[in-house]
Amino acid sequence: MSGPRDQPYVGGIHLTRTDENAAEIDELADLLGGTVGVDAVLEDLNGQGHRTLASGRAVSWAMTWDRHDRRDPQWWPQGITTSADATETEDIRGRRVVAVSWYAKDKQGSRISFIDLDTRRYRHVLLVQPVRSADGSVSLVPLRVHAGGIVWCGPYLHVAATAQGFMTCRLDDILRVADDHAGDPSTHGYRYVLPVRFSYQAHSAPKEERMRYSFMSLDRGVTPPELIVGEYARGDQTRRLARFGLDPQSHLLVDGEDGASRPLMVDPHGLAQTQGATVARGRYYLTVSHGRSTWGSVHSGLPGAFRHHRWAAPMGPEDVAYWPSTDRLWSVTEHPGRRWVYSMRRSWFDR
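and the corresponding structure tokens:
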């Protein structure tokens, strides 16, 4: 797993990219006060996380959210990615950053929290979709997806959308809601919103089950980097793991002459109840949850021959990402009152 994939395409799943919402985003920028990008968010962090201890035999560092976010029954953390995914320097203008996705159990949609690891300060940014009405005007609606996995690659943030495929946002499109629009119900009181620029829609061949894009991560151990995606499964559901090629210049999926992006590899030997999967040093690391009251597991190795590390993670582990220079795996937990952003030394799983 150290070089480009040579094996032929297996199966009939693929993705097609939609047109960009470029005009709609420009109109929203004129309406709300202009685009500001992620740098403005990182200069305006308003939440304070706290160092803490977290359960899990492999956990070596953990923080939790402020009192409200730690207990909020409406918003649930799901996906995780870092500035080590975003850039080869592993930082954003000198900041080490973790991004976490949440979904709302009501109609507020989904959001991204940007965390400065050195200060543990953070801010939530609402994910939105531009919508053009019949009269030609543009408005926004919250993006309602589970957001079970996210990947920050170059200027883009990819957000898993299960059966739909995944949504792609450009971080330069982050909008700061002007004071005179702060009461707009579509922004739910958020100072910053991030619109979807386009999506990758899921398709499958006849008689083949459509891939569920439940979680995702980035493998920077190959050149160029590859996107890892996988399926959460119960019972007899498929539990496939797949890899897609990324264009090193555009940071987007490689597509064919027909415009479809097909996986480099599809492996059916994933695990039930997997919440996240990443690849580090040629090996997969999968997080598996056992509910609110039981510590989570991590499985390492290659599909079909995973090694089970019982109680390695806290209760309710979700997505997972890898930070190469520190050789650490990063993850997040979801249950109210038991919410941590935490890291694990990858070498712990070699014992």
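(Above: one complete record from the training split.) The CA atoms of residues 131 and 137 lie 8 Å apart.
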